[in-house]
Amino acid sequence: MEAYFSEMRNELQSRDALWRRIQLECQQLHTELLKIREYKDMQEVKIKHQSSCIQLTEQLQNKNAASLLLPQSQERQREELNKIRNRVYREEQSHRSEQERMKTEISDLTEELHQKEITIATIMEKAGLLERQLKMELEIKDKLLAKQQLSDFRYKVIKSENTQLKEMV
């Protein structure tokens, strides 16, 4: 009987270890979620970068208007205008490629997070099922232990009565 309880204790300990592993994976998923949020914040910085491109475009338009007003410095203004155009073009290209890279990375991270959420849900469901099974098994074992203790008590009573009868005979 003691071996049976030892085996049950070992089984409970292994299930407890499984539960701890599940909690650790939940913590890791939470950490990944924080990284995704941090990455999203970086994307907002990139949007501000796009705003700077718009400002450069406005500067370009202003310089273009100024070049029409000052025909004597037209050549110099064209050069400056070309520089600004080139700068705007480079900034826009840089921004587009960064945006595409971020979209791809966010998509990948979102898919990975979705898969991990599914995994967590499955694990939590299994953990709940294991917990219910464990409770049922513990109830059964408690009942069996109570029966065993009752049987031991009856045995001792009968043995005591038997000893008394032997002494009387």
Automatic annotation (TrEMBL):
Keyword set includes rRNA-binding: no
Chief location: cytoplasm
**Residue runs in coiled coils:** 92-126
Q: Which GO terms describe its cellular component?
A: centriole; cytoplasm; deuterosome
List all membrane-crossing ranges: none
Q: Which UniProt keywords apply?
A: Coiled coil, Cytoplasm
Q: Where does this polypeptide localize?
A: Cytoplasm
Which superkingdom, per the lineage?
Eukaryota
Tell me, which GO biological process terms does this entry list? Answer: centriole replication; de novo centriole assembly involved in multi-ciliated epithelial cell differentiation
Task: Cite the PANTHER family for this sequence.
Answer: DEUTEROSOME ASSEMBLY PROTEIN 1 (PTHR18875:SF5), SARCOMA ANTIGEN NY-SAR-24/CYTOSKELETAL PROTEIN SOJO (PTHR18875)
Name used for this protein in its record: DEUP1 protein
UniProt source species: Lophotis ruficrista
| Gene giving rise to this polypeptide | Deup1
